[in-house]
């Protein structure tokens, strides 16, 4: 039986002016349409149409899934799924691939997917990898040769290819620089109109593989309507590409623990990626410009529009207004000329103002960048004077110092210049020790999701 224990605690009186918080008012109800959707609705509709009970429907769905899984397993086991995939003889150039130089190896060719490349599905990669492993496993090779050889170099290449192509981000990085895809641009000037459309279709289908927006509009043929032609060029002039160039990144020197070396290498890699991306965007735009200039459909569309204007002009000739006098024509021309001059003057003035604004913004940005280094250095000095927040009498280890300075770099990158300036003033005002760390922690907490998982020393 429970017993009641009275504790000798006296509660303090409520403060003067305290009032009980009032509950928030519920929002006004709204009428919203509800649409039937989702797997539950589909199941209910299936039961109603097929007149099944819950038990019968569950049993039928389970049997269908088992049949599908069994058929897939049988197809993989007997090789009937994608026959010949991953079973071809590899050329010597592929077999001699060095696993240490995995960035230079053709991952599609290693798995026998060289004929599919970026069109290969996840199932293709899975089946090809399984068959390659069965053929080239080191244990199997050792038993076949009859002696203790265990050359697993190509097997490591297979595993690296599978690891790369099953990772969505790494596969995109490899597809972005795939050197075995023929990206040669034909000489459109020497092609007939029919060949022009055929070659352009193939060319832009390859370029379209990098588009974030799918499906990509096709180039079309000689009879494509004006709307389709305009939509095609509008799409490629505003092309949103996911192509990136991280694959060309240089690795940090092996064995180097220098934070400066790592930062310098990362900076160089980022600069090189930006340069390659800019060049690729320019290349695509110039390609679209050259195709547009030679597109035979543009001539056809212009001829059709001209014929339509002439027909309209002839049709309205009967009801045309009377001819203007020479004085009236001159007056209209002068008015038109004046409007054009005013328009040009306004555009020139706007361009000059815009240029001045850009220059001012650029100078302000450069000044902020210069000050940013000073502010960060000042914060680092305060942290150092606080002995990196270690107990009095102890010396901060190199690991702790590097970690705190690294987190300071990350914090400065996530903050705006004005916020960095504010942080610098706060830590200088705090002096040293715990108040300084509290100011840093407060700034990290204010980042919210932006700083999630990036800070431990200042968390």
UniProtKB/TrEMBL annotation:
Q: Where in the cell is it found?
A: Cytoplasm
Which Pfam families did the record assign? DnaJ (PF00226), RAC_head (PF16717), ZUO1-like_ZHD (PF21884), Zuotin_N (PF26185)
Q: For bias kind Basic and acidic residues, which ranges apply?
A: 327-367
Comp. bias (Low complexity): 19-30
Q: Which Gene Ontology molecular-function terms are recorded?
A: Hsp70 protein binding; ribosome binding
Q: Which SUPFAM superfamilies match?
A: Chaperone J-domain
Q: Which domain of life is it from?
A: Eukaryota
- Spell out the GO cellular component terms annotated for this protein, sorted alphabetically and separated by semicolons: cytosol
**In what residue span(s) does the J domain sit?**
106-178
Protein's GO biological process: 'de novo' cotranslational protein folding; regulation of translational fidelity
Give the residue ranges for region: Disordered: 13-34, 66-99, 252-278, 305-367
Q: Which UniProt keywords apply?
A: Chaperone, Cytoplasm
Enumerate the PANTHER family for this protein: DNAJ HOMOLOG SUBFAMILY C MEMBER 2
Protein name in UniProt: Zuotin
């Amino acid at each position: 039986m429970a017993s009641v224990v009275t504790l000798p605690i006296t509660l303090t009186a409520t403060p003067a002016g305290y009032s009980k918080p009032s509950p928030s008012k519920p929002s006004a109800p709204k009428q919203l349409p509800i649409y039937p959707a989702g797997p539950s609705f589909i199941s209910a509709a299936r039961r109603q149409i097929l007149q099944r009970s819950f038990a019968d429907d569950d049993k039928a769905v389970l049997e269908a899934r088992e049949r599908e899984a069994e058929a897939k397993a049988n197809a993989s086991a007997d090789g009937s799924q994608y026959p010949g995939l991953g079973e071809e003889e590899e050329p010597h150039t592929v077999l001699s691939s060095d696993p240490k130089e995995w960035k230079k190896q053709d991952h599609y060719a290693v798995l026998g997917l060289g004929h599919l490349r970026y069109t290969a599905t996840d199932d293709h990669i899975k089946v090809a990898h399984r068959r390659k492993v069965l053929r080239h496993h080191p244990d199997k090779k050792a038993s076949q040769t009859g002696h203790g050889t265990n050359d697993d170099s190509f097997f490591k290449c297979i595993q690296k290819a599978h690891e790369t192509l099953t990772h969505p981000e790494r596969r995109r990085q490899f597809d972005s620089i795939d050197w075995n895809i023929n990206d040669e641009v034909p000489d459109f000037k020497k092609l007939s109109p029919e060949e022009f459309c055929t070659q352009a279709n193939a060319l832009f289908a390859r370029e379209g593989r990098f588009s974030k927006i799918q499906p990509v509009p096709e180039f079309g043929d000689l009879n494509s309507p004006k709307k389709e032609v305009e939509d095609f060029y509008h799409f490629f002039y505003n092309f949103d590409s996911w192509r990136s160039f991280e694959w060309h990144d240089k690795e940090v020197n092996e064995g180097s623990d220098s934070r400066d070396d790592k930062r310098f290498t990362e900076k160089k890699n980022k600069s090189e990626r930006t340069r390659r991306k800019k060049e690729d965007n320019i290349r695509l735009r110039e390609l679209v410009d050259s195709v547009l200039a030679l597109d035979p459909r543009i001539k056809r569309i212009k001829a059709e529009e001209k014929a339509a204007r002439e027909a309209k002009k002839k049709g309205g000739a009967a009801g045309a207004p009377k001819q203007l006098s020479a004085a009236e024509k001159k007056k209209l021309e002068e008015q038109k000329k004046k409007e054009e001059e005013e328009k040009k003057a306004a555009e020139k003035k706007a361009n000059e103002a815009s240029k001045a604004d850009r220059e001012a913004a650029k100078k302000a940005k450069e000044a902020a960048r210069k000050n940013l280094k000073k502010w960060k250095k000042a914060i680092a000095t305060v942290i150092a004077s606080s002995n990196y927040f270690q107990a009095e009498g102890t010396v901060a280890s190199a690991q702790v110092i590097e970690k705190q300075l690294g987190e300071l770099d990350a914090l400065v990158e996530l903050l705006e210049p004005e916020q960095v300036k504010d942080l610098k003033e706060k830590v200088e005002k705090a002096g040293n020790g715990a108040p300084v760390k509290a100011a840093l922690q407060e700034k990290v907490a204010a980042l919210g999701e932006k700083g999630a998982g990036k800070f431990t020393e200042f968390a």
